[in-house]
Amino acid sequence: MIPKGIAAIVTSGSAPARMKTRFTELVGIDYPIVQGGMMWVGRAELAAAVSNAGGLGILTALTQPSPDELRREIERCRALTNKPFGVNLTILPSVNPPPYAEYRNAIIDSGIKIVETAGHNPQEHVAHFKEHGIIVLHKCTAVRHALSAERMGVDVISIDGFECAGHPGEDDIPGLVLIPAAADKVKIPMLASGGFGDGRGLVAALSLGADGINMGTRFCATVEAPIHQRVKQLMVDGDERSTNLIFRSLRNTGRVGKNSVSDKIVEILRRPEAKFEDVAHLVRGAQGRVLLETGDLDAGLVWAGQVQGLIRDIPTVAELMDRIVREATDIIRRRLPAFVVDGRS
Ligand SMILES: Cc1cc2nc3c(=O)[nH]c(=O)nc-3n(C[C@H](O)[C@H](O)[C@H](O)COP(=O)(O)O)c2cc1C
Question: Which 8-state DSSP code applies to residue 223?
C-alpha cells in the first residue's frame, strides 16, 4: 500500500544508485539514512536490513545483557551484511549503571568502525573510541550540546528535534528551527533526527542544512523490526497526537507512545508533590521489553514519536528505503525546480 499523502509524489521511476552528502562519503554508504539506536529493537536483523538497503544500521549495545553477548551480536550482524553498520552506546544516569567501559571495549575489540553515542557526559567514551580511529556520531538535542560534542572531537552530530521518540531534552525546539539553527553553527556533518519517515522529510532535512536523516519510530514499523506485530500496528494506527511526554517535572523528559501506562505516569506526576518513586513501578525497562515481545500494549512503556502520524504501513526495510529515496529524488528533480521561474513574463 502506498501511504495516502505520498501517493501524489512517488513516481514509478527507480531509485538513483546513490545520494551523495558529506555523511554518505564519510561512512561509505549509498543513502543518507540512519537507523538510530533503539533499546530492545536495535538487533542484528534490523541493523543488517538497513545497511543492506544502502543506509546505516545501528545495533544497540545495552540491548545485549553482557559485553560478551554484544560481541556475539556484532558477529551475527556481520554474517547478515557486508556493508558498514554501527553500534549505539547510550549513557544514561542510573543508580546501577551498566559496565559501560566493558561494553565500550567489546565494541572496540570487535573492530567496529562507527559508533553512535547518546546521553550524558560521553567525553571518556568519545576519547577512547577516537584513539581507535572509530567514527563517532553523537546524538543530542540542543545546539549548545552539539557544539560541545564537536569540540570534544566527535565526527558527526545527530540532532534530535522535539518531535522525536526517546529523550527530546527540555528546550522543546522542533526540528524546523533546531536543524537550521544547528547547521548555522556546527561545522562537521550533521544528521537531522526526530519526525522523519518519508522522502519529503529527507529533502526537508537536506534543505535545512543537514547531511542526512536518522529515524527510529519509522523503522519499528517494518517487517524486519524484531518486535511484536501488534506494536508495529500500534504505530500504523497511531497519529501525530499518539504520544505522551513523561518525566517533564523531573527534567528528564521522555516521549513515549500513548497508552494506559504513560497516561498514568503523566497523571501521577502532575501532582505537585509527586516524585520519581511514585511512578518507578510503571517505568521499569523490563516491562517495556515485555510489551515489545508479547504485544501486550499496556504492559509498560513504548518509545514512539510524533512521526506515527506519517506511518501507514509495515513494509520491508528495503521497500521503505527505496520509497524514501525515490520520493526524495522525485521532489528534488521535479517538484522543486518547477517553483523557480527565470526571466520576466
Ligand atoms: C523503540 C525505541 C527505542 C529507542 N531507544 C534508544 C536508545 O536506547 N538510545 C538512544 O540513543 N536512542 C533511542 N531511541 C531514539 C532513536 O534512536 C531516535 O533518536 C529517535 O527515534 C528519532 O526520532 P523518531 O522516532 O521520530 O524517528 C529509541 C527510539 C525508539 C522508537
Answer: T
159 lines ligand 1 (CB under 6 A): no
Output the pTM of the full model: 0.96
* Cα–Cα dist 259/261, whole Å: 5
| pLDDT tens digits for range 190-219 | 999 999 999 999 999 999 999 999 999 999
Using most ligand atoms within 8 A of CB, pick from 33, 303, 324 the residue to mutate for ligand 1: 303
DSSP states of 54-104: TSBEEEEGGGSSSHHHHHHHHHHHHHH-SS-EEEEEEE---SS---HHHHH
Burial 48-85 (b: 16+ CB within 10 A, else e): bbbbbbbbbbbbbbbbbeebeebbebbeebeebbebbb
β-pairing verdict for 254-257 and 243-246? antiparallel
